[in-house]
UniProtKB/TrEMBL annotation:
This is RNA polymerase sigma factor RpoH. Residues 218-275 form a coiled coil. One of its GO terms (biological process) is DNA-templated transcription initiation. Its main location: cytoplasm. It comes from Arenimonas oryziterrae DSM 21050 = YC6267.
């Protein structure tokens, strides 16, 4: 089978100028129906149609973004996670069999997560040292400030804190970090120590949710937000302000507060609110 489909064929955050622009672009790609997905998958599988494969990949890029958001707590760039996930998505498209009775998103989630996990394994460390300017200063000065190789006593901690103009807590935390060591991200396969702490890989997020349902739910929420933005934009400024302050603001404005501000009765504000809500409901029901 032709394997010419590569990441060079796909949009990437750097090419679009920002991660937000990339996410906005992939969210505008229409979601495929079951029939469209199966037709494209068969065209690629039976005819080596790369355009069909690219269409399959493009329509699922938003799903990769959805998965990547679950791994943002490891100190790695969201754009990097997305690009690694895109590689997994393309591998899944190559291997996807439309006759197995599952949606591509359910099949692809394992490949997408596998690439992201591999990226995290290569780049993540359990201990992050000197991540702020103050911590970097403390990191580079702490060793030469210590009087002995062992743990510092309270007087030494106080002296270092005063000298470097940081708190005693920060000194103790950095000393603990410097005294630690990196540990294996995943435990050896033959590890049988029941008392050993779990390897960091055990903490990778797995929401244990059906990926197809999660994908559809996430897409539905994004569509609802887009409709809300469009609906508010179509209202006149006063009606838009009334809805925002009555339902989206904190604290929420009362009818009388808005009536006093606009110089009309509270009943008139209620009528304007009702008319605006009616227009919004029509938009959502379309």
């Amino acid at each position: 089978m032709n394997t010419a489909l590569t990441t060079h064929n796909l949009p990437i955050p750097s090419a679009l100028g920002s991660l937000d622009a990339y996410i906005s672009a992939v969210n505008r790609v229409p979601v495929l129906t079951v029939e469209e997905e199966q037709s494209l998958a068969r065209s690629f599988r039976e005819e080596e149609n790369l355009d069909a494969a690219k269409h399959l990949v493009m329509s699922h890029l938003r799903f990769v973004v959805h998965v990547a958001r679950g791994y943002q707590g490891y100190g790695l760039g969201m754009g990097d996670l997305i690009q690694e996930g895109n590689i997994g998505l393309m591998k899944a498209v190559k291997r996807f069999d439309p006759d197995q009775g599952v949606r591509l998103v359910s099949f692809a989630v394992h490949w997408v997560k596998a690439e992201m996990h591999e990226f995290i394994l290569r780049n993540w460390r359990i201990v992050k040292v000197a991540t702020t300017k103050a911590q970097r200063k403390l990191f580079f000065n702490l060793r030469k400030s210590k009087k002995r190789l062992g743990w510092m006593n309270d007087a030494e901690v106080s002296a270092v804190a005063a000298d470097l103009k940081v708190s005693k807590r920060e000194v103790l935390e950095m000393e603990s970090r410097l005294s630690g060591r990196d540990i294996g991200f995943d435990a050896p396969a033959d590890q049988d120590d029941d008392h050993a702490p779990p390897a960091p890989i055990a903490y990778l997020v797995d929401r244990n949710d059906d990926p197809a349902l999660a994908y559809e739910r996430n897409d539905s929420e994004e569509n609802q937000l887009e409709l809300l933005r469009d609906g508010l934009a179509d209202l006149d400024q006063r009606s838009r302000d009334i809805l925002k302050r009555r339902f989206l603001g904190e604290p929420k404005a009362t009818l009388q507060e808005l009536a006093d501000e606009y110089g009309v009765s509270a009943e008139r504000i209620r009528q304007l609110e009702a008319n605006a809500l009616k227009k919004m409901r029509t938009l959502f029901a379309a």
